[in-house]
Amino acid sequence: MLVPCCFRLARVLEQRGGLRASGLDYKPDASSCSVFVPLGALYGCRRADKYGSICVFDTEAEKVALTPEKSEQTAGPAWPDALYDLLCAEGVTLFAYVPDAGHKVLIERSLADPSVKSIPLTTEEEGVGVLAGANLGGAKGVLLMQSSGVGNCVNFLSLVKSGKFPFLILISMRGDFGEGNPWQMPMGQSTQRVLEAMGVLCMRIENADDVLPTVSAALTMTFKSGNAVAVLLTQKLLGAKAF
Amino acid sequence: MSYGTTTQEQLDRGYVLDRRQAVPALVGDHRDFLIVTGLAGTAKDIAHLSHDGAHVFTMAGAMGAAVSIGLGLALAKPERRVLVVTGDGELLMNVGALATVAVTRPPNLAVVCVDNGHYGETGGQRSHTSLGVDLKGIAAAAGIPATRRVSKQDEVSAASKLLRESNGPVFVVLKVRPGDPPAYKRNMDAAACRLRFRAALLGT
Predict the structure, then answer these.
(1) Does A129 contact chain B (CB < 8 Å)?
(2) Topology of A79-238 in CATH?
(3) Residues contacting A113, CB < 8 A, separation 6+
(4) Domains in chain B, CATH or no CATH each
């Protein structure tokens, strides 16, 4: 069975001889960072290196996310690495971001990955424009931001709605479950309603087990059925901040 | 402020060129680029020049997004030259985008700011540039490696060459006097224009 994985992982597997041993000559697609490798090759390396979290898809219609046991060296939950692999496997090549602790792994991995482009923004609204431009050029992008920045995006969401742009945001929440900073509450409590008022579909995640299936669904709803979708990573998932 | 005539103050500040001649002269053969425009004035300038071409995406809202859209397009299509043509008011609304262009350094992106120092669509109120703000200086200070100010006819052709040949982001301020852009009725359906643009560029 062949499964998609990110190009960088495939190179690691190739260097190790795993792909050659299986007789598979993989060819990276220039327009995408994903390649197909035998499932066995992935199993062989799951706990062996820093790519410990690998998202694989069943060949059947339903996508199944296999999250391996957390490696001993890795601090923090396993889902952020698996999420990065999922986004790459689905052909996301632009990561536009305003920094937030909830997106730390995605930001760091995108910065370190030569097969994607990572774009630091001065304000979240820039990211809306960047992703629209990426769509005009045939690339898939994702915007990583905190809920505090949703208000900054509102006017630019006119572009998304008028142009029917496929549009995907991953939003780490502030101002919800257990928030300790009163300044975060107004935007956090309005985030979903503001997005929905501008035609963006919202999907909330509270459990680590739901991250990959939800983002996988969001990717399909964005890039296959052409919606604007926001995935809200809640403070139940990320943990509340006291500042 | 009177339109159509050049005042001494405009002459002093370099707002002399007529956009109806200066924009086409600076852009040259528009087919050399994928083009993103701002609203109103620059959208009409380029729609008129290109006959609302499929390689052009014009805006009619989301003011401040033009440079960011151009950046995303340039990153997605590194083998094509991307030109953003926008106004001073539109650019001032999201001037941080120049900082992002500077740090991202797409070699194939050029930005032209058609600067008449005024909000031409809303009654001709003065913008920050005619009150002393120097957008070329901001772009240079942000770190955009190639910047030019064009306010005279004999400066146009070198800047036009720079838009095509620079290996790094380019920023050109084209100073023009306040005055109407050419009249042109372009397609304002953003979804139709998006699909038209992608079909022409990507065949999808």
Answers:
(1) yes
(2) Rossmann fold (3.40.50)
(3) A6, A8, A33, A88
(4) 8-199 (3.40.50.970)
